[in-house]
Amino acid sequence: MMSNHSSATEFCLLGFPGSQELHHTVFAIFFLFYSVTLMGNTVIIVLVCIDKRLQSPMYFFLGHLSALEILVTSTVVPVMLWGLLLPGMQTISLPGCVTQLFLYLALGTTEFALLGAMAVDRYVAVCNPLRYSVIMNSHTCIWVVIVSWVFGFLSEIWPVYATFQFTFCKSNLIDHFYCDRGQLLKLSCDDTLFTEFVLFLMAIFIIVGSLAPTIVSYTYIISTILKIPSASGRRKAFSTCASHFTFVVIGYGSCLFLYVKPKQTQAAEYNKIVSLLISVLTPFLNPFIFTLRNDKVKEAFRDGVKCCYQLLKD
Prior knowledge:
Layout: E1 10-13, H1 20-50, H2 57-85, E2 91-93, H3 94-127, H4 132-135, H5 138-155, H6 157-163, E3 173-174, H7 181-186, H8 193-226, H9 231-259, H10 268-292, H11 295-313
Parallel strand pairs: 1-3
Antiparallel strand pairs: 1-2
Helix pairs in contact: 1-2, 1-10, 2-3, 2-10, 3-5, 3-8, 3-9, 8-9, 9-10
């Protein structure tokens, strides 16, 4: 416990409750998830970079989304795994906590912006196919990605700065597996109500704001698909959007529950479960969502495996 008059200079992440045997089991599961996440998303990035069949805006955005998933999960999971393997050793300095929270939120915001752009890309592909190559040219795609990254990092400077302006004098124990903002605010002796309200408004602006073009785009996409006379044509059109739509439902659903609420200091157990969906499950599912339903990616992967096999054989 900290003194009632001083602010914490380091924090202890409590992580998950349970016995050491349970911790080791959970460690093995999450380590497997993390390894598959790194390998799967890296494979997507490599395929997008080297395979000519994947040289289109959809896969260009997918490559950046995979890079974001690697970075998001790597911001949180290694610290979590360390705490599971060596209980009682999971301390993090104040600068480390600031850095972790900022990267986690900034990368997540970048991902939201990119998902909105991907929805617009799918709208143009389905609803304006003849103008697709003109509208979604390489120059436009590069600028969309740059704006997404810049917006993501700039928009989280103030929220993180405001969070760490408070005095954390109640305790230095964070009941979470990473430096969660809600749990940090619980440790403050100051009045956090106004800041929490501003953070709530910013979360609405970022999450709901990036969700709006997705909703509008898919409204037009579904309307256009339903007008296609043949069943095979409707299936083909929907297949180009199904992976992105699935990812949007999982990603936005989790974050709406976690961040779009007036009171940031939600119950720790609730926060941990939703955070696991965002930082572990969603990055893990990303390669499967975008490959199992995509024939071009599967073909590129099979050809890549054959090429590697031939090189090793020779």
